[in-house]
């Protein structure tokens, strides 16, 4: 957490306001946060009650929304959902904002996450696609964020939002460029228990979002072969999806979204992801209207 605090406070472009949500911490977190809030006038702390357990997905968004309620979002041009387990390069905010300023259709953007290999000390890419911003350090243009209605309170919120951006003609994107690569101090999807638990949860998230069985199977095989932990990671993802289907777990109830998602996924399998992203962004441009009325936040 202190590493995140230090690298944000050293940014070349500082946030106008940084709301840090303490989700009921029982360690030294409150005193450390207060120390930084006393030092930097742009930091505000929002404290929530300890629910007694870690709640991924929905719990993350509950915390984010608690911070959001403490501001008037219309006073800002950009909003960033930021985790507290990151090491950000000094110009991260500056470069992302400049890229978004250069293309007004970009509504959702980030750099790419890397983690440090414990054995070699080398930086390892987390292998995230270019079609979405990364949930740990996700920038939003406020108009776009309001139009998609904020984040869904469930695992895979950070995939659903990117597809909703595209449905409305916005561009969701992340760039793998040295100056905006950030270090994830705890690898994405590692969970509070293990990396395999996180991969299993990802499979459930794909099921909840509405992915097809075929797409999930292909994605799992790809993960088995090319992403650590090899074999077992992809298997855990696939089983998380299949088990959710067997149990009849509830899914996101949005037929238009599911139709859009599956068309995107089938095109990725047939044409490749890069061609599909370009094609769909071009097709959806006619729906882009930055002045369109926003959707209300139903569960904020």
The CATH class of the domain at 2-188, by name, is Alpha Beta
Strand order of the largest sheet: 3-8-5-9
Task: Summarize model confidence as the mean pLDDT.
Answer: 92
The total count of helices amounts to 11
In total, how many beta strands?
10
Annotated CATH architecture of the domain at 2-188: Alpha-Beta Complex
Give the fraction of residues assigned to helices: 40-55%
In CATH terms, what is the fold-level topology of the domain at 2-188? Spore Coat Polysaccharide Biosynthesis Protein SpsA, Chain A
Low-confidence stretches: none
Sheet-strand content, in percent, reads: 5-15%
Shape: globular
**Largest sheet at a glance?**
4 strands, mixed
CA-atom Rg in angstroms:
19 Å
**Class from secondary-structure proportions:** alpha/beta
CATH superfamily of the domain at 2-188: Spore Coat Polysaccharide Biosynthesis Protein SpsA, Chain A
Task: Provide the descriptors you would attach to this structure in a database record.
single chain; about 300 residues; alpha/beta; Spore Coat Polysaccharide Biosynthesis Protein SpsA, Chain A; four-stranded mixed sheet
Can you walk through the features of this model?
With 300 residues, this protein is α/β, with parallel strands linked by helices. The protein has a domain at 2-188: Alpha-Beta Complex (Spore Coat Polysaccharide Biosynthesis Protein SpsA, Chain A). It is 44% helix and 14% strand. The protein has helices at 2-9, 29-39, 58-68, 92-102, 142-147, 157-167, 195-209, 213-226, 232-247, 255-271, 273-284, and strands spanning 18-22, 43-47, 78-82, 86-87, 106-110, 113-116, 123-125, 137-141, 171-174, 182-184. The strands form three sheets. It has a four-stranded mixed sheet with strand order 3-8-5-9. Strands 4-10-6-7 form a four-stranded mixed sheet. Strands 1-2 form a two-stranded parallel sheet.
């Amino acid at each position: 957490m202190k590493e995140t605090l230090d690298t944000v406070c050293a940014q070349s472009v500082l946030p106008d306001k940084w709301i840090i949500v303490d989700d009921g911490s029982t360690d030294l977190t409150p005193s450390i946060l207060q120390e930084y809030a006393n030092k930097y006038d742009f930091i505000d702390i929002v404290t929530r009650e300890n629910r007694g357990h870690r709640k991924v997905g929905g719990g993350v968004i509950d915390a984010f929304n608690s911070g959001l309620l403490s501001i008037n979002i219309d006073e800002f041009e950009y909003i960033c959902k930021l985790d507290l387990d990151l090491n950000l390069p000094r110009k991260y905010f500056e470069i992302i904002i400049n890229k978004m300023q250069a293309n007004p259709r970009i509504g959702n953007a980030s750099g790419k996450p890397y983690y440090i290999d414990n054995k070699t000390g080398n930086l390892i890419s987390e292998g995230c696609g270019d079609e979405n911003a990364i949930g740990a350090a996700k920038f939003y243009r406020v108009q776009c964020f309001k139009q998609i209605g904020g984040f869904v309170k469930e695992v895979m919120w950070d995939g659903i939002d990117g597809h909703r951006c595209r449905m409305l003609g916005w561009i969701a994107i992340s760039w793998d460029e040295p100056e905006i690569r950030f270090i994830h101090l705890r690898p994405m999807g590692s969970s509070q228990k293990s990396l395999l638990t996180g991969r299993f949860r990802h499979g459930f998230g794909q099921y909840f979002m509405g992915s097809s069985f075929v797409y999930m199977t292909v994605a799992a095989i790809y993960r088995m072969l090319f992403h650590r932990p090899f074999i077992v990671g992809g298997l855990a993802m696939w089983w998380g999806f299949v088990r959710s289907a067997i149990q009849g777990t509830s899914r996101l109830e949005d037929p238009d979204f599911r139709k859009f998602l599956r068309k995107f996924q089938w095109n990725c399998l047939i044409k490749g992801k890069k061609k599909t992203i370009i094609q769909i962004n071009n097709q959806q441009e006619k729906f882009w209207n930055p002045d369109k009325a926003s959707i209300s936040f139903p569960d904020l």
